[in-house]
Amino acid sequence: MAKVPAIVPVSDLRKDAAGVLKNVKDSKEPLFITQRGRATAVLMSLDAYERSEAERELLLLLARGEKEIAAGVGHSLEQVLAEAEALLSDG
After folding, report:
1. What's the CATH number for 6-44?
2. Would the pTM of this model clear 0.85, i.e. be above it?
């Protein structure tokens, strides 16, 4: 079952910004800010943001690799393993 997102009206954010920020940091989940009943922004802790960015970067690298494979660009597994072994043996 999908998790219900945390939602806070902008008026509550104005009234208790410190409390809302503490809850966001503690929950490590994004918080949707609404204005006039509609979602207008997402607030997340710095840890959650950094984790999200790291995951996004990994997905971009994987997508780039998939494109290279489809285009026939890249290195064979044997080449990669040989280079890795050479790097490890130098250290």
Report:
1. 3.40.1620.10
2. no
